[in-house]
């Protein structure tokens, strides 16, 4: 049950976890490139179904991460320290990649799902988005980092659920918006032109949060 009297104690960590997710959502990866390809090649409806599949996959990974972490904490007192260090190191790795891309921008790939010329139902695109995200190592590592940001030692379980459900909802809505934008080629062109600035901002954010985690704050 949510303790509204003490929610202000955990709100900064919750909001920082949401911010980390948002930064991850604008970082090019398999999910974003796959969604871009489907939206450009198959249209807005296919992109929307694919986006909902990605959001559902994100929520599933978040639930598995939270429940697994809770069980681990119950049996191993130092588990949170290990998770925090792993999350911090992964965020620093993302910062390195973002800075490298900012100084050496690469042309983003097009369709990562080969067009097959066959009619695919909305459920088919949903399944593709779901399976892509569930098998994406980046998504799994990102969720470990997100949970470690807002779910420290002694944090009540409801905080973890607020993070997971909120992030799952945000992921679905943002990917849905991407699908709408990516069904128009001018939006893709604008995204590519802003890639240097986007990656620079990502690098600063990931580095700051990664250092914060490693410092234990």
From TrEMBL:
InterPro entries: LeuE-type. The chain crosses the membrane at residues 15-38, 50-73, 79-99, 158-182, 194-215. One of its GO terms (cellular component) is plasma membrane. Signal peptide: none annotated. It is found in: Cell membrane. Keywords: Cell membrane, Membrane, Transmembrane, Transmembrane helix. It holds the Pfam family LysE. The keyword Cytoplasm does not apply. It is a multi-pass membrane protein. GO terms for molecular function: amino acid transmembrane transporter activity. This is Lysine transporter LysE. It comes from Thalassospira alkalitolerans.
């Amino acid at each position: 049950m949510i303790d509204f009297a003490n929610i202000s104690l955990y709100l900064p960590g919750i909001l920082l976890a949401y911010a980390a997710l948002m930064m991850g959502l604008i970082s090019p990866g398999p999910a974003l490139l796959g969604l871009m390809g489907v939206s450009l090649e198959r249209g807005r409806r296919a992109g929307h179904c694919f986006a909902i599949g990605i959001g559902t996959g994100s929520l599933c990974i978040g639930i598995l991460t939270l429940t697994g972490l809770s069980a681990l904490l119950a049996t191993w007192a130092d588990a949170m320290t290990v998770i925090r260090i792993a999350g911090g190191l992964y965020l620093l790795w993302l910062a390195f990649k973002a800075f490298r891309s900012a100084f050496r921008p690469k042309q983003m790939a097009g369709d990562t799902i080969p067009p097959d010329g066959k009619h695919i139902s909305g459920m088919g695109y949903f399944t593709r988005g779901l399976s892509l995200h569930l098998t994406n190592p980046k998504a799994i590592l990102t969720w470990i980092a997100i949970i470690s940001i807002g779910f420290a030692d002694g944090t009540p379980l409801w905080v973890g659920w607020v993070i997971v459900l909120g992030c799952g909802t945000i992921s679905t809505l943002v990917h849905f918006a991407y699908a709408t934008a990516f069904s128009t080629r001018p939006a893709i062109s604008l995204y590519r032109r802003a890639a240097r600035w986007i990656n620079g901002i990502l690098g600063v954010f990931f580095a700051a949060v990664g250092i914060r985690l490693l410092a234990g704050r």
